[in-house]
Every structure is written in C-alpha cells, then in structure tokens.
Amino acid sequence: MIIETEQDVTKAVLAEIARAPNPRFREVMAAFVRHLHDFAREVNLTEEEFREAMNYIVKIGQASNETHNEAVLISGSLGFSQLIVMLNNGDNGGDTDASLLGPFWRMHSPPTPNGGSIVRSPTPGDPMFVNAKFVDQAGKPIAGAEVDIWHSSTEGFYENQDPVQADMNLRGKFVTDQDGRIAFRSIKPAGYPIPIDGPTGDLLRAQGRHNMRPAHLHFLTSKDGFKTLISQIYVQDDKFIDSDVQFGVTRKLIGNYVRHENEPAPAADVKGPWYSLDYTFTMEKGTTKLPRAPISGKAKGERPKIPHLA
What we know:
Structural class: alpha+beta
Number of strands: 10
Largest sheet: 4 strands, mixed
Helix content: 10-25%
C-alpha cells in the first residue's frame, strides 16, 4: 500500500499482520498495533518523545543479566504483571491464591525434607515455622506436589543479589505428603527495596513513588493435572502492605504471621520469640508448565547498596 495519510500506516500494518498463519498471533498483534497507533494519536507523540522511548526500551535490555531481569521488574512496577495474573486465574483474580512470579525465582532449588530449614548461611532474623497445605477446588488434599520456596533476607536481598549469602540461601524445594502438606523452617521475611539503578528507578522517580515491597514468602507449586500455582503470602502488618511498588498484594494473599513470646518453639534451639504461618492454597485444574526463570545466576563481588526512595 502506498501511504497517503497517517491512517493508512495503521491499515497497511494490519493488512500485513492479517497474512500471518497463526490465528492467535494475528489476533494479539493486530490488537497491539491498533492500540499502539491509537496511543500515539491520543497523546500526539512527538519525534523527540518517540526517540526517548526507544532508548528507554534499549536500556531495559542493557540493565538485564543473569542475576537481574529489568523487564520483569518494570512490568511489575506498571501493574502489568498483576493484571495478567488476575485475568488468568480464578474469577478474574478475586478469589485466587495466584500472584506474581517476580524477577528473582531461580531454577533448581535444593530438595529439602519436610520440616527442614532453608537457612543455608548465617542470616539474621526471628525464627519462623511454616505449615502449608495444598488442596484442589473441592478441598481434597493434593499429595506429591513440588513446592518451590524463596524469599529475601532481613537485609533486603534475595541470595542471587547478594554475594554474602550462600548459594540458594532461603530457597528450597519440598514435596507435599499424603495430606497435601509441607513444613519448613526459615526466618521471618522483611520488606525490601527493589533495584532502582535502571529504567525502573527512572520511572519511579518520575512518579514520586517509593521502591519498597512488603515482606512476603514466595511459593511455586506444580503437580500433573493442575495449573502451576505461583503465589506470594504477605506479612499482614508490613508498613507497605497497601502501597506495594509491584501492586501484588490482594486481600486473599495477606497471611497471618503469628508472633509467639512464651510458647515453646517447634525446634529446641529456639529460645526467644518466634513466628508461625499456616496457610492453605487452592490449586486449579489445568496444565502443569513451569515458567521460564527470570534469572539464572548469582551476583559476585561486594554486596550492592539499594537506596530507598522516599
């Protein structure tokens, strides 16, 4: 098509997309092009703004490596990741245990026996004992499910970000017993700042937003016949519970982390205060498929410094 008007540009692109053999590709890409072109028209995007946007996209790739995924980070900070979760789980996400994968999940967490600890190097924090149960939508226990656990340290780092922590610290993989249960020991998680030395940081500064996530535990559970469940369970009294920089907190995912002062802990070596968490997850029928891991390696050198945005 010879372009006569700005409207012809959109028509020409859509005509080429219509030739694609894959129907889902045609549907998605045609909608994407229509919305993208209409966005430029709506805001009357200038050439200078367009070039700056292209540079911004390039910077997202440049900021990503084997220990950091800037694309996942910025997607969460725009609420896009949470939107996709809610569109694809439960009743538009309103009654589902599904949540964000986030940028820090690694493959091959160490297999750990039920009741074992995922603290693999000295890590400060109050002891925590977690009991989780996994059931189907009829309430029947799911035995033999693999459950991947990971969370940040109280210093505010996942182990892959932090050369000081042992490899795979605060990570572990469990298998549910005949009652659909797992149990493990760790430390109570703390809220943490997301990295802001890349395009995501520029985005947050431009909006005047903070870069904090409320404290949470990650769960990734898979079993044949069920949709892979990715979840986060949040600490109920975290100061950032209602302003998560990644928009991941739903009412369903706020846990009850109970502080115990005078009760004996499940482990004899714990003498002071400790925490417990009990939670039941519901898995939906579907196809089991693991996501592609956003990261693959562990940072080297010195512990990074991640500032807090006010």
